[in-house]
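Researcher: Good morning. I'm working through a list of sequences from a screen, and I'd like to move beyond sequence-only analysis. For each chain I'm collecting a predicted structure so we can compare shapes side by side. This is the next one on the list. No need for commentary yet; just the structure.
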Amino acid sequence: MTSQTVDIATLGRQAAILLSQRRYEPAADAYVALLAARPDSANDWFNYGYVLRCLRRFEPALDAYARALTLRVQQPEEVHVNRAAILSDHLQRDAEAVVELEAALRANPRYVIALLNLGHIHEDHGRRAEARAAYARVLALDPLNGRALARTAAIDQFEQAPERAVASLRKALQHRLHPEDAAEIGFALGNALDAAGQYEEAWAALRSANDGARRLRPPAEAYSKAAHDRLIDALIATKLPPALSAGEDAPPLFICGMFRSGSTLAEQVLARHRDVAAGGELEALPAIVAQRLSPYPDTLTTATPDLLAELRDQYLREVAPLRAGAGIVTDKRPDNFLHIGLIKTLFPTAKIIHTRRDPIDTLVSIYALNFADGVAYGNDLGDIVHYIRAYRRLMAHWATLYPDDIFDLDYDRLVADPQPVVEGLLAFCDLDWDEACLSQKPSEASVRTASSWQVRQPLHNRSSGRWRNYAPFLAEVKAALD
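Model: Good morning. Structure tokens for this chain:
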């Protein structure tokens, strides 16, 4: 065995160890060295692409994955799906993502993940027939696939056929199901029964689905009221560093608030303006917090101007491709309300649009949605109440610090009488009036949200006061929120 062979083997082990430890920066360096020594390894290019994706270096990740495909990596369908995820989720290049998913299905026509992702993209663009066809292909392979059944039911509801959804979902629940599938189907059944006006049965289905989803969550990932209180206390107590000077590029419009409080509707209204592009629910800011500012928010106190400028530039690089020629892009990640202090430090002229909704309606809407592992507090009514109260406390703090830079957008007022609310919103954003912002025509743009079919309906106020359908089950939590 030659020394070069030994060195390559050592580099390979080092890279694999760093990857398994999720130490992505040194892992990237290790794979660069490894690929310099053996440039024809498809698996190394695949792993390098994954590392770059984790580091949010999306274009280089696409290149690395392409190199793996050129070298005839085994199971190429996985590479195509990874490329599609980058193109769709992070770069908003959905047409290219569809091409990748179709390539994955040519490599493996039974690849369920590719079919589900294809269905999601079609849903995002309002293409019901194509989405339904993708989910039908999944169900032909796996008749009890929870995601495909749930998303098909959502299309049924949009087509005013909740009874059809109820029948198919109840039939599926008669079988022995994987717990994740049972939870998906249970949430879908609760929402279909809600749409059918069968509220008592809907609540029973949602309660069962939430109980099942909560059991799926590892104990280490369970919502901790004490830990969340400590975070809110720390955010309020943190002495923020001096804000950076305003840059040349217009900062994004940050739309935040509770999940299910109208952020998607707010973004859709703004995105109809000729000068605004919808960025969607971006991971850019939470990723900066997780990767560059841990432990947060303690690190903000000692953050240097150079570090802050680097973080600002990193954020702007990531959102730049989303502007699509518009002067302003939105970032509608709801839980960015946690980071308003950081936002105003990096972007001192940033405008914050704070979406608000009747808190008990917000609670019901959260409880009715399957967030999977994305929202730890969402499966327990007491946890949702606690989170809402903590959110109120933090927003009151931000309002004292930035009273002129936060616009409270009331969902219920917006759907009841749109024009005065939209006029105030555009004036706050320093945007001139654009009649298109009041358009009732369904948007042709991609809508990435759990309520993608709802926001494609003409503006309505049917969700205002929805909680009253469940009043017998909500007396205790309503009292806690009043």
